[in-house]
Design goal:
The structure is a homodimer.
Chain A (H helix, E strand, L loop, with lengths): L5 E5 L3 H13 L3 E13 L3 E13 L5 E4 L8 E3 L4 E6 L4 E7 L4 E16 L7 E4 L2 H10 L9 E9 L2 E8 L5 E6 L6 H15 L6 E7 L6 H7 L3 E4 L2 H10 L2 H9 L1
Parallel strand pairs in A: 12-13, 13-14
Antiparallel strand pairs in A: 1-8, 2-3, 2-8, 3-4, 4-5, 6-7, 7-8, 10-11, 11-12
Chain lengths: ~260, ~260
């Protein structure tokens, strides 16, 4: 059988809908079913979802999502690697996804189908995440372990004689930490800039002081200069920061930026 | 205008598709658009997604998802609360979602639409998560901070003279911790059971020993018995455990259970 680009049935009979679902799963197409369904999950825990009108999405890799009409999170989901069974009964269609390791089992039972759609989608477009230097500051504030375990930020973009310190905090031993962030390979300029901040703060500091240069990588011969000046380097990729920012729970972030 | 239960167009012209999209957004229906699109996001970070064939889902509360044909996670998403703008150009439709606090901006540009579907879904079905006692053990093993910060599990369902200890570990001060888990309100039986384990282990233990009863709540007069026997209580809801189990990254869990 050749893959059709698109099959759509609206308000089909259950037997017709079941046939489209079976074909889509067999041909590894992307399947969308909208209708009235209930869901049972057993596996790492157990859950039940009472009947209601929702969307079931099964992708070509076998990942499964059940979406209610509100909320960005799926109510049920399963990563790829399921085996599917479809059973058409007189008054319902059961779509059963079984996954091994860990054993997980999702059973979606439709009593009414408004729409069933099977799509053959081609997508090789690259996804690129980008974080600015300021985004990197915010990522470190939200997840200080990006710098090191036990780091506690005190302030950021703090005014200090020659300019602004990117991030300023205390390490787990109580020492002050001055952080200079670069989103590209850090050169000697960045090291000298950090050294100037350290010199300015040293005068007033009542305790030990550390300077850490954060960047995806160090330029040629920069490591030597760092060591000479008693400074440190921490490799951090802007993409990692972008992921942290995007994934941190929304409410948490909103609370943070409201402060 | 009355809400239609279902509108579906297959291979529509861009102007036709744009009209359905606009109407669905205005009437707060659930919208599904399948087609060739690119995506730009600016907000907490920035991202670009090159052209490819995907699904855009916008729910009635304004939450937005862009799903590629593989993977259970959306490539782009936005929680509820966006304002939408739709622009139909000669060769593309732009769907623009703008969110305040934090300022976020998703722009999905379709150059080709295979299917557009607007659905009016009614869903008030209750979602119930359930964790067994064994599920609660596993949740504590996966996220020991559910018990307390610094707790390190050593083993679980460990055979000890009178039966099996649910979870067994060490606290941040190096003391042994014996954990008895109940998924419902814990009664005196549970306390006496924990006390028996403690007595059995005390004989062999070379260091201080703590007994912690974990349950959603304590029965009447049980607190007094606990205190008399020198034991502790930690409130833990099975639903919270179920969420931990379901949300813990899949790879992490798989690695854990393979060990």
């Amino acid at each position: 059988m050749q893959k059709d680009k698109l099959t759509v049935l609206t308000n089909p009979k259950l037997t017709e809908a079941a046939a489209v679902i079976e074909k889509a799963l067999a041909q590894r197409e992307t399947l969308i079913v909208a209708g009235k369904c209930s869901v049972r999950y057993t596996g790492r825990a157990k859950s039940t979802l009472e009947p209601g009108e929702r969307m079931l999405i099964i992708k070509e890799d076998g990942s499964l999502l059940v979406h209610r009409p509100v909320g960005y999170e799926p109510v049920n989901w399963q990563p790829s690697g399921s085996v599917f069974h479809v059973q058409a009964k007189a008054d319902a269609i059961e779509v059963h996804a079984v996954r091994q390791k860990p054993r997980e089992n999702v059973r979606v039972t439709f009593t009414n189908v408004f729409m069933v759609s099977a799509l053959s989608l081609t997508d090789s477009g690259e996804f690129a995440l980008y974080a600015s230097e300021q985004d990197m500051h915010r990522a470190i504030l939200l997840k200080p372990s990006l710098l090191e375990e036990g780091f506690k930020p005190i302030s950021y973009e703090k005014k200090v004689e020659p300019g602004f310190v990117d991030v300023y905090g205390v390490d787990k031993e109580g020492r002050l930490v001055v952080v200079e962030v670069k989103r590209k390979t850090a050169g000697k300029d960045a090291v000298l800039q950090l050294a100037r901040y350290i010199d300015a703060i040293k005068v007033k500091a009542d305790r030990e002081l550390r300077g850490v240069l954060v960047a995806p990588s160090l330029g040629k011969d920069v490591q030597r200069l760092l060591v000479t000046l008693g400074l440190e380097f921490k490799a951090l990729d802007p993409k990692k920061c972008a992921k942290v920012l995007k994934r941190t729970e929304v409410t948490k972030l909103e609370k943070f930026f409201e402060q």
